[in-house]
Design goal:
The complex is a heterodimer of chains A (14) and B (256). Chain A is mainly β and 14 residues long. Chain A is built from no helices and two strands. Chain A has strands at residues 3-4, 12-13. The relative contact order of chain A is 0.26. By secondary structure, chain B is mainly beta. Chain B is built from four helices and 20 strands. In chain B, β3 (33-39) and β4 (45-52) form a beta hairpin. Classes of the chains: A mainly beta (14), B mainly beta (256). At the A-B interface, β1 and β2 of A face β10 and β20 of B. β1 (3-4) of chain A pairs antiparallel with β20 of chain B.
Chain lengths: 14, 256
Amino acid sequence: RPSQQTIGKFFGNS
Amino acid sequence: LEARLEQAAMLKRVVDAIKDLVQDCNFDCNDSGIALQAMDNSHVALVSMMLKSESFSPFRCDRNIALGINLTSLTKVLRAAQGDDILTLKAEDAPDVVNLTFESPESDRLSEYDIKLMDIDQEHLGIPDTEYAATITLPSSEFSRITRDLSALSESVAIECTKEGVKFTCTGDIGNGSVSLRQHTNVENDAKSVDISLTEPVALTFSLKYLVNFCKAAGLSDRVRLCLSNEVPLLVEYGLSNNSYLRFYLAPKIGD
């Protein structure tokens, strides 16, 4: 079952 | 800040489209316009709104300010505006409140509200410039229908884009379903066309709950753009006039 990722995993802090 | 919108409907619809996803938001105002970026509580979806200065007439912002606004409060006040009212947003330097006025275009009615501002300590994310592998532009009503229909069967949807077209597939307890769309040009009404541009095939899985939520923005634009690359968040974009936009990013589901 695929697990839900979070946005923070892909987009860094600016 | 002083920003006058010819039609209150635009702000009413934008706020309506995002208020169930994000609650307390900074409206970042500078001379290029009013921007908002916020994640939902679970940090799975990100809302990015840009209302360019050209969408207002006039627009004046002498100093950069962040207006921390609770969207439930803003919704209560915007409910007092008619769609075709002229809406003006005003805030001073280091403001405690944002002032909204609604002017009826055909009568002398003027209403005026202040909303108390909040200090919102929000992390701001850098959204990388991405060359997406697949870009699908379709009627926003079609996308709403697909997400609604498939969400009745399953929590998740797999979106596969190949040169054959785009396929939305779901599997649930009662069975499974899919919707396939091909590139299609409607000669009578271009808004009904489906445009697919692909540099490499894409297959990703997303939570339907969020996609259904994004579709609350369908009233803002006839068209919606879906941008996908493998293993990165999906971008769902509703374009507004004057290059303003409402974008939603959704993190994928990955792995077994």
